[in-house]
Each structure stands twice: as structure tokens, then as C-alpha cells.
């Protein structure tokens, strides 16, 4: 059966620039080989909802109509990838606003909570590009649709993995009511606090659930290791307030 909007699918992919350099992949060994491995990343494939903005627009659109097992590639222009470069996000500021005064072109910096890259230094004035490093770039995605998730528990666990980086969280789903047992460490995890309402909303819309209960669970036998707060994504999260970066996979923040 052809993939449709709203389907929960498991997707493996590799993203490349036009020169062939790989910037994102769900293949752990390839990530290590290309020196882009993220120890906090979740490898082995992402679960995404087709049409929900969990990956970039061009890839999301290409998924529709494909069959499980499909393997192919697509070239995606900037406007359907990570967006065009916005000249308004290139700003010239005083060097006194930077913690490190020993600046040079190419240096990553943070100004008023925003991350950017120094593009020019003239005297005590510094030009900083706050665009995503992927903005304005044409990219190619090679991808495989592994399978479509059918059960409510699979869908819930897959969505939770996308937003938290934790696989196989304890979940129950009966008569349209989901009980999600969250490790106590998630209570103070900023990424989770921002994503929790969205997870519930997407489960209502795409999984047909009527109620979602988040239950904090503590056990004496073991402690669950909660991922550290993620650093700012090096790639833009397409249409998502969390990808996904697709995380950190790819924030589909893929």
C-alpha cells in the first residue's frame, strides 16, 4: 500500500551537499566515518509522521505515494530544504558584545542567545551571520522507507524517540487512552518540556487517541539516563519546533 499523509514510518536516510559531503545520516558507522557522529544522536532510523513537518519539506513531499522498502534519492532546492539565506540575519556588531575578543572569520559565536558565525572583522566591528549553516544550500537525500508502524504502542514509542532521544519508553494504549511512563529526569529536561504538548497533539491528530497521560515513574532498581540538553542544532529544523533536527539526527530537527 502506498505511503499516505499521516502514516507513521521508519525512515533511514543520508543527506549530502552538492559536492558530495555528508552532513546528516541515520547510519551510525557512516556518521563516525564522516566525522559527524553525535554521541547523543539516535541512529538506526527515525520514526516520522508523513506530512507532519518532521523532516524538510522536499523530502516530506517525496515520501507520499512510495511503497515500504522504497530506496531512492531526491535533490532538494534551498526553498524546500533549509531555507534561503536571509540578509537580515547578517548583522554587524561591536566586538565588545563577544565573550572572546580574539575573533576571526569562521569563528562560531553566541550573541544574546543566538548562535552565528563570524564572516568579517574590520577593526572593532564584527559581521556575524545568524543564518543556519545549511541555509541557501541545495541538498540530496538518499533514503529508504523501512516500514509503516501499525500499532498504537509502536507509534507512540516512535514519536517519543523522535522528540526525546529515548527508545522504547514504557507505554500502554487501551481504548484510545495512552499512558506514557516518563523517567523522572525528563521532568526537568527543557527539550521535553517544550515538546510534551506537541507530542500529545500529534497523537490526537495522527494516531486517533482521545487521551494522553504522562505519568512520572521512579524505580528503586535502576536509574534511567536522560540525554543532556541538546546543543543548538547545526541544521535548521524544518517546519518543526523540535526536527526531528529529524534532531539530533537529524533536529528530519530530518
UniProtKB/TrEMBL annotation:
Residues 221-254 are annotated as: Disordered. Residues 230-239 have a biased composition (Acidic residues). GO terms for molecular function: peptidyl-prolyl cis-trans isomerase activity. Its EC number is 5.2.1.8. Residues 6-83 form the PPIase FKBP-type domain. Keywords: Isomerase, Rotamase. InterPro entries: FKBP26_IF, PPIase_dom_sf, PPIase_FKBP_dom, SlpA/SlyD-like_ins_sf. It comes from the Archaea. This is Peptidyl-prolyl cis-trans isomerase. It comes from Methanosarcina barkeri str. Wiesmoor.
Amino acid at each position: 500500500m502506498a505511503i499516505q499523509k499521516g502514516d507513521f514510518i521508519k525512515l533511514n536516510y543520508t543527506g549530502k551537499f552538492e559536492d558530495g559531503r555528508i552532513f546528516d545520516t541515520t547510519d551510525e558507522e557512516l556518521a563516525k566515518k564522516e566525522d559527524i557522529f553525535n554521541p547523543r544522536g539516535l541512529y538506526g532510523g527515525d520514526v516520522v509522521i508523513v506530512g507532519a513537518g518532521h523532516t524538510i519539506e522536499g523530502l516530506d513531499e517525496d515520501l507520499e505515494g512510495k511503497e515500504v522498502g522504497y530506496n531512492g534519492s531526491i535533490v532538494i532546492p534551498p526553498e524546500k530544504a533549509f531555507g534561503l539565506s536571509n540578509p537580515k540575519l547578517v548583522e554587524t556588531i561591536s566586538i565588545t558584545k563577544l565573550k572572546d575578543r580574539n575573533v576571526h572569520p569562521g569563528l562560531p559565536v553566541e550573541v544574546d542567545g543566538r548562535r552565528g558565525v563570524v564572516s568579517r572583522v574590520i577593526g572593532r566591528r564584527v559581521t556575524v551571520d545568524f543564518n543556519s549553516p545549511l541555509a541557501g544550500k541545495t541538498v540530496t537525500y538518499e533514503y529508504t522507507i523501512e516500514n509503516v508502524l501499525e500499532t498504537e504502542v509502536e507509534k507512540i514509542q516512535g514519536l517519543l524517540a523522535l522528540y526525546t532521544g529515548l527508545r522504547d519508553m514504557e507505554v500502554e494504549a487501551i481504548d484510545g487512552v495512552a499512558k506514557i511512563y516518563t523517567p523522572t529526569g525528563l521532568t526537568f529536561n527543557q527539550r521535553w518540556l517544550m515538546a510534551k504538548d506537541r507530542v500529545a497533539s500529534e497523537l490526537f491528530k495522527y494516531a486517533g487517541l482521545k487521551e494522553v497521560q504522562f505519568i512520572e515513574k521512579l524505580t528503586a532498581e535502576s536509574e534511567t539516563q536522560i540525554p543532556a540538553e541538546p546543543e543548538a542544532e547545526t541544521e535548521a529544523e524544518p517546519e518543526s519546533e523540535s526536527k526531528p533536527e529529524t534532531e539530533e539526527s537529524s533536529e528530519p530537527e530530518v
